[in-house]
Amino acid sequence: MASQSNGASDWPGRYYHIDQVLNTPGPRTDPEFLAGDGVKDFLRNKAKILVIGAGGLGCEILANLALTGFKDIHVIDMDTIDISNLNRQFLFRQKDVGKPKATVAAEFIMQRVPGVKVTPYFGKIQDKDDDYYMQFNLVICGLDSVEARRWMNATLVNLVDPENPESLKPMIDGGTEGFKGQARVILPTVTSCYECSLDMLNKPTAFPICTIANTPRLPEHCIEWASVLEWPRVQGDKKMDTDDPEHIGWLYKVAAARASEFNIEGVTWSLTQGVVKNIIPAIASTNAIIAAACCNEAFKIATSSAAYLNNYFMLIGTDGVYSYTFEHEKRDDCPVCGGESLDMVISPNMTVEQLIETLVEKQDIQIKKPSLSTSTKQIYLQAPPQLEESTRPNLEKKVSELVPSGGEVTVTASTLPFSLSLSIKYS
Amino acid sequence: MANLHDSRDIETSTTAVATEAAPDSKTRRYDRQLRLWAASGQNALESSRILVISGSATSTSILKNLVLPGIGHFTILDPQKVTPEDAGNNFFLEGPSSIGKSRAEEAVRLLGELNDDVEGKADVRSLEDVLVNDREWLSEFTIVIAHNLAAGPLDQLATLLWEDLSYPPLVVVRSAGFLAEFYIQYHEHTVIESHPETAQSLQIDKPFPALLKYSTTLDFANMDVTDHSHVPYVIILVRLLDEWKKSHNGSPPSTYDEKKEFKQTIRDMRKKDDEENFEEAEAQAYRTWTTTSVPSEIRELFKDPQVLSLTPTSPPFFHLVHALKRFTEEHASHTLPLTSTLPDMKANTESYIHLQKLYKTRAEEEKAIFKSFLQVPISDDTIDSFVKNSHALKLLRGKKWGALDADPAALAAAIDTAPKQLAIHLALSALSSFTAKHQLGSPLAPTEEALTSEAQALLPPGTELPEEFGDAVGEIVRAPTADLPNTAALLGGVVAQEVIKMITKQYIPINGSCVIDLIETWTGIL
């Protein structure tokens, strides 16, 4: 009854397609699925879903959710629309360039799909507190940043209160790069979380500073020289804006001059922009696939109309359509959901500074600017400035002078809402 | 500014300082995709004309992902008016206000808003009408995409497009509820720019004369320590391999012990412990005992009938392969032309650039030899690209849509090799046969029994359906006419992606049927 009577915007036949899978269970549907009006009422009148990101994936996610019958959708995005978004972010037009993505996307969806309420927030996910995240049944992430995903993941894991089943918010995460992408379902504390799989990320290309400064060989080395060394030297405190064509133009000229000096070919405007902005190729089709996979999982979880993904779907579209669906295993020593501390064997001669470098680079840790402490003392703190200054002398000390073998070191970083505990042993 | 099309000598081109202006608005708009398929791919897209049959949610989802990257033209062929059901699941209709209007016209109008540079056209004729009165019209398109067409007209369309080579490839898309499948009907598809993940061999085991001479005459002994630690590993390996061969009857290291010994000669050559170029040489030592040869897939290409019976009118691809075959037979290295692309390695600028020049010069010479084997004129750009990708060329031969269902033995074989994929394919084929017999006007309500007997009829007598068929057919019975938004969106992405690969002739499209299960969330090829 409920689904028939709600909202003046519903017209007879509107949910003809969707209702076929909501009126009847399928062979692989959970026996607890209550086909019919109850599930429709939950989907259309009660479910509240949060979408993180209103970009390439976000635009697709919002449209899919609206069409499948979610009516109370919230979206967070801190970006404004750029012309290079228009080849895939299909809710935006030329006239929208410069406006906030979240707001424009929300308005478009509400205008196109009657009766759907999309509440935009133009800002950062970190602006919101636990109470805010607690109000949603599900969270879908369509982000291009590892940091933001780690933050969201840790926040949702921390939110889980074993006494309160409502506090477990399934997180569905999508990501794309060119013709490749992945979609996964994370049930915080129950399944493997985003942090558990950090070592699956590709290592970002980093060029050693001595190559850039002394022995450039590739056009990329010349571009890095222009942006990392020449910009601060020549422009002083002026902040580099990689979206400003004049800044890119300057970097391009400087890089091309250096390349010409060293007989290196291949510095172009496009490469310059690609290197300094760390541009990842992105197309509408891959985003459509991954966003659809994410929304399909959200729909199945919200309605129980079919089993959901357990728990990782990976797609490679360069050679045919290749995909791999598998269960990513939870890590007992995951700093976010594992509970156990991470064993780390280091040389007794390793200094605190070297340990910090290791933490930044280690594939399963990757913490930028970590602060270290033990239960009794501060080893090195990145902030505030007074504490940084007072702990700075420790950087040169050996870790073994400060921490006994088997001792615990707590690692924190301002970008991450969790701490990592290391159990230090000496080789 | 010198004319960009002139082949400038290295000196001029490398001393040219930044002259490129900031990119125009079109380049900025397409920046993120140009990094995948470059201007050549974009030009191919912009010259393409796509026909999509029916304005269903799946059809408009596919088109959305083709209009955004900038195809030249699309037509939606659909005589239907928008129903309330259509207005509920299709993003390219405006809810209740579209009801009763032409589905093709509404969809074309709303898809058109995505990209001003794309021309869209609504055609309200039926496919049946076109097949009878205007078949020629179909040859105007680069590719035809058909979603959930009735079996009869679909077979007629597939036969027409298959039997006359002047007609375009056909993409057949079928879906019901959480299950879907699509197939690309083409005779032949060739790819030069397959964008392989592996690089071409540096041919360290078969060093070209200038590289050998440079490597063996370089005065390592009298080099200062800094220079010594900046000699590219390629040169170290070529030199040590040459020395090794002299004392081993001309053979490279082959046994485990010999390989270990060879690595020791690398370590012995160091002037100090931490020379990174020597560490690299050790890590890359396998290149000395890995024989560079023509990859087996390329060797297979050489035996293709189109290559063996080459005529002046053969497509350029086969002329190029024929010339490649001759190159590998007649050129001293007996392998593919040398690559001009050197990966980055520990070295100082001077020695790296010098090595790069050696490779480039030699690559140019080998390209000239390759070119001399060509029997028809082919553009330099194409030759460059062909030589660069000669280790990763691709030739796909396809079959007519329906060939699998017409071949009971092949279906029976798939029961063992791909039961999950086959189960979904058979369930969708059964639905299609069932629908063809269904009387218009009454609701379509297939039973499991009816669909099972349709599927069974395709298999050889006495063959059991795959175990997974029960799950697949159950889903079809549950939602026989559901064009679910998420399924439509996913098909929209994956079909558009394959169409882009077909049009640009870059990357490798599917060969066969791609089956999709959105319950367990997997895709597979049948």
Q: Tell me the number of helical segments of chain A per DSSP (H or I, 4 or more residues long).
A: 15
What is the 3D form of chain B? elongated
Shape, per Cα inertia axes of chain A? globular
Mean pLDDT of chain B: 94
Widest sheet: strand ordering of chain A: 3-2-1-4-5-6-7-8
What is the CATH class of the largest domain in chain B?
Answer: Alpha Beta
Main sheet attributes: strand count, strand direction, barrel closure of chain B: 8 strands, mixed
Number of domains of chain A: 3
Largest sheet of chain A: 8 strands, mixed
Order of helices and strands of chain A: HHHEHEHEHEHEEHHHHHEEEHEEHHEE
CATH level 3 topology of the largest domain in chain B: Rossmann fold
Number of β-strand runs of chain A: 13
User: Major sheet of chain B: order of its strands?
Assistant: 3-2-1-4-5-6-9-10
The CATH architecture term of the largest domain in chain A is 3-Layer(aba) Sandwich
Contiguous helical run count of chain B: 24
Query: In terms of per-residue confidence, which ranges of chain B show pLDDT below 50 for 5 or more consecutive residues?
Result: 1-15
In helices, the fraction of residues of chain A equals: 25-40%
Mean pLDDT of chain A: 93
Quote the distance from N terminus to C terminus of chain A: 69 Å
What structural class should be given to the helix and strand makeup of chain A?
Answer: alpha/beta
Query: What is the radius of gyration of chain A?
Result: 25 Å
Pfam families (chain B): ThiF
Biased composition (Basic and acidic residues) (chain B): 1-11
Biased composition (Low complexity) (chain B): 12-22
Family (chain B): Belongs to the ubiquitin-activating E1 family. ULA1 subfamily.
Describe the fold and architecture:
The complex is a heterodimer of chains A (427) and B (526). Chain A is of the alpha/beta class. Chain A folds into three domains: 246 residues, Rossmann fold (3-Layer(aba) Sandwich), CATH 3.40.50.720; 69 residues, Arc Repressor Mutant, subunit A (Orthogonal Bundle), CATH 1.10.10; 85 residues, Roll (Structural Genomics Hypothetical 15.5 Kd Protein In mrcA-pckA Intergenic Region, Chain A), CATH 3.10.290.20. Helices cover 36% and strands 16% of the residues of chain A. In chain A, strands 3-2-1-4-5-6-7-8 form an eight-stranded mixed sheet, sandwiched between helices. A five-stranded mixed sheet of chain A has the order 9-13-12-10-11, sandwiched between helices. In chain A, helix 4 crosses helix 12 and helix 9 packs across helix 11. The longest helix of chain A is centred in the last third of the chain and has 20 residues. The relative contact order of chain A is 0.11. Chain B is of the alpha/beta class and 526 residues long. Chain B folds into four domains: 205 residues, Rossmann fold (3-Layer(aba) Sandwich); 81 residues, no CATH class; 102 residues, no CATH class; 64 residues, no CATH class. In chain B, the strands form two sheets. Chain B has an eight-stranded mixed sheet with strand order 3-2-1-4-5-6-9-10, with helices on both faces. In chain B, strand 5 and strand 6 form a beta hairpin. Chain B is elongated, with a radius of gyration of 29 Å. Classes of the chains: A alpha/beta (427), B alpha/beta (526).
